[in-house]
Write a structure and sequence with these properties.
The structure holds two protein chains of two kinds.
Chain A (H helix, E strand, L loop, with lengths): L2 E10 L2 E11 L4 E6 L5 H9 L6 E6 L2 E2 L5 H7 L1 E4 L11 H8 L6 H14 L1 H5 L10 H13 L5 E5 L7 H16 L3 E6 L2 H7 L2 E6 L2 E7 H5 L2 H7 L3
Parallel strand pairs in A: 3-8, 3-9, 6-7, 7-8
Antiparallel strand pairs in A: 1-2, 1-4, 4-5, 9-10
Chain B lengths: L1 H31 L6 H18 L4 H24 L7 H23 L13 E4 L2 E4 H23 L1 H11 L1 H6 L4 H26 L7 H15 L4 H21 L2 H18 L11
Antiparallel strand pairs in B: 1-2
Classes of the chains: A alpha/beta, B mainly alpha.
Bound molecules: adenosine-5'-triphosphate and magnesium ion (MG).
Amino acid sequence: MLLEVKNLRVHYGKVEAVKGVSLSLRQGQIITLIGANGAGKSSILKAISGLVRPSGGEVLYEGRRIDGQPPNRVVEMGIVNVPEGRRLFKLMTVRENLRLGAYLDRDSRRVADGIEEVFDRFPILREKQHQPSGKLSGGQQQMVAIGRALMARPKVLLMDEPSLGLSPKMIDEIAALIVELRKAGLSIVLVEQNANLALHLADHGYVLETGSIALEGPSDRLLSDPEVARAYLGA
Amino acid sequence: MSDFLQMGLTGVSLGLMYALIAIGLTLIFGVMRIIQYAHGEMFMLGAFVLYYWHAEMGLPYWAGVAVSAVVIFGLGAVLQMVLFKPLHGKNILYSLAVSLGLVLIISGSGQLIFGTTTKGIPSAVSGGVLLGGAYLSYERMVISAVSIALIVALWLFLRRSVTGLAIRAVAEDPDTAALQGIRTGRIHWIAFGLGSAMAAIAGCMMGTLLSIVPTMGFLATIKAFMIVIMGGLGSVVGALVGGMILGMIDSVVTTTISGDIALILSFVVIFLILVFRPSGLFGQNWD
Ligand SMILES: Nc1ncnc2c1ncn2[C@@H]1O[C@H](COP(=O)(O)OP(=O)(O)OP(=O)(O)O)[C@@H](O)[C@H]1O
Ligand SMILES: [Mg+2]
């Protein structure tokens, strides 16, 4: 197993946001976490990234415990987070945002190549590279956010609601990109409120309700589950 | 005409020194979101390091400026790690109380150790040039040039170097900065050290142009805050522009009318700027 979360708990003060969640991600797989607002999806990703300290449970990466490690160590190991709402450095240029994605990379040659690779993937960003990233459209900002994460040359990508606030056309593009990234060998944890999209992309899905997993299984089975259809697919 | 040249150069050199202090303060605020009241004390200590190095021990002036910058960088970094780091993320009132305490401790022990008499730092450059009836000292010109060079160097550092980008990233969004692999704790002490060193260098220059006393930090802090509020919290360009405005008012109005009027006018200008631009000339809206 590449990444394994066992019985994870996250508290904010007295409030328990994640109540013993277990997940597993195999090499080359896409898993998805779906659930309503406030279910605890982002908290799980933040705990994996080391941004919040779990109050219980374990996170294992390639068999080693990584919970309690600071975010820079987690990034160094190859787990990179594309945060909810993109969270670009809006006052900084597109290029500077991409450069920061490779902050830990001491090889300036590889960093320069990485920026070119992102520009090849998203040609519009080459044109806008010197503009403040905050001036870009939502879809372009999502490209920068994903490009910035790819700059770290990750093995695991944690994507928090990449479709949020995007046009249907842009959502299709992001979906195609996710498929492509998986083909390129990345393993992905995809958090989504758009359950239909997420389950079509993922191999395995987890349905989160107020901090606990209510249901899990292969995506096609969840897609045909009447409960899921009623609660999350708007059927 | 000659008077204006004279006042202009005085205003510029004064403004640049104010800007150095204020840029240091705004850097510390931008990255850590704390109000560092003891910033003026770093300015004062920086001047005294140069005083002991150059005036007392007779060692070379410019090396002394560098030593002062390094020593105060170290002091700032240590203060951050020991005092402010444990308070990070807690109520801002805690760090406020600590920095106010530092003001009392540092300026109090400064008076005990350095004595309360006014001292001067002999200058490294002598002579000057008469230009249209105005006497422009080389010292003032060199000091202004050094201030400009430092501000440009800092600006380039923040734009071009990876550490500079990281400083700006932490200032804008610390969590997302951490997700890029940036150790935010390290950026905190670097920014605190750098900001303090800027104040120290300004102290060296002020001590050379005017004179030094252990209580001089207080007014420096007030001026720095006036500038930072005018220019916009966290903005380096704002601090530069704000510094120049304040320097010019101080120079021109003090010479032509009086120092009291200069201070009043400064507050009027700040008030007007804030009426039209509540977050300062170049400010962002910090939440
Ligand atoms: N920093 C915080 N401090 C206190 N409570 C928090 C904090 N972050 C999240 N919470 C709470 O924890 C719970 C889970 O939040 P989380 O952001 O993980 O949910 P989510 O599933 O990602 O929701 P959304 O779909 O809205 O992004 C919510 O009740 C939220 O209010
Ligand atoms: Mg969320």
